[in-house]
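Slide 14.
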Amino acid sequence: MTQKMTLGKRGETLAADYLTQQGYHVHTMNWHCRTGEIDIVAQLDTMWIFVEVKTRRQHSTALAAITPKKRERLVSAVYAFLEANNLDEAHWRIDAIGITLSRHQAPQIEHVEDALDW
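Slide 15: predicted structure.
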């Protein structure tokens, strides 16, 4: 596993743990389809939450790394997940979690709910 993949997997694990602590139920991680991938699929009450996780070593770049093209692929993957799981009538949103890892301090977690409304 490359260092970049290790960093990403660590961030996704930290994000899933954070969501669980916040009362979310994590259904699956790294859901793949033809159009893309969803890092975390979670649920909070009746709301389905699709989470894009970006992990970086520098704070200023974590959430900025979600490009318009990445957003487009993510939305397509969400629709594919909803269709594959017969959730056409489900309430849902896309969140983003930025994880900043530093050698000298605890991980910094920035959670942006309903990230498409930036």
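Speaker note: The chain has one domain: 3-22+35-117.
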